[in-house]
């Protein structure tokens, strides 16, 4: 499954309308759009507001909740229960804590508490061993991914894993669906052949949107024309009406 990640209602609705089978959120996009740091427990309010705004789309929505935003597992479970009540289908829950990883026992306890409280939500447990550039990541990530699966995670997310050998090890060793980031080193078709179940776009679309906005502004300032393909005012204005009650969804990339 290809999972594009949105940062506001318009981007989520546009992706759902384009035919993608599900939509996620990008914590970087949410944080940067709000003028706040990513992965700093600074965007709880914005994350819940976005979930409330997009949960009614006619595709499943999964929300990046960073490390849970709260230090206590019970309160993280409360947050996931709140998101489930809004209609959210899944969450990402990461073990990164700044430049280090949470202890395995603490993270598995967190996952267990959340799954016991909200079993219906797909919990995608993320390990940041590769993401943080830890030298022992190839050995560390599979062990953590398996521990999280054993604790009740429905899937594991390993951003930064980008070699066939590492990905094959994760696919065969965790026992649950593997999620990786879309990446230039391995095309989508090859990732699927290796057994990857979910390919997330992460913050790529948000960063691409910033690039497109600045590029367009510079081109117009230099006297260039407006490039074709930009949505019209009317098309964008209509996105606020896109949701389950419109019956406008369609099967898309999987």
Automatic annotation (TrEMBL):
Record-given protein name: Isocitrate lyase/phosphoenolpyruvate mutase family protein
Keywords annotated in UniProt: Lyase
Record Pfam families: PEP_mutase
InterPro entries, A to Z: ICL/PEPM, Pyrv/PenolPyrv_kinase-like_dom, Pyrv_kinase-like_dom_sf
GO function term, MF aspect, one: lyase activity
Species whose genome carries this gene: Streptosporangium longisporum
